[in-house]
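Deliverable D2.4 — example input (structure tokens):
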């Protein structure tokens, strides 16, 4: 579950590493996002580009 307990940048970097590691092991990742995370990351339910970019960055 994606939640924010630290600075937003730290959380983002942590999840990028986790997603990269999981992908290299052949796992498919599905995020369960707590509603307050949208506020903390300053993103909208209507624009999920943040999560797309997170997954793309984890793939490189």
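Example output (designed residues):
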């Amino acid at each position: 579950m994606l939640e924010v307990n630290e600075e937003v940048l730290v959380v983002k970097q942590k999840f990028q590493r986790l997603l990269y590691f999981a992908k290299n092991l052949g796992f498919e990742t599905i995020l369960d996002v707590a509603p307050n995370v949208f506020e903390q990351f300053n993103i909208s339910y209507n624009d999920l580009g943040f999560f797309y970019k997170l997954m793309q960055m984890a793939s490189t």
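Residues 1-25 form one domain.
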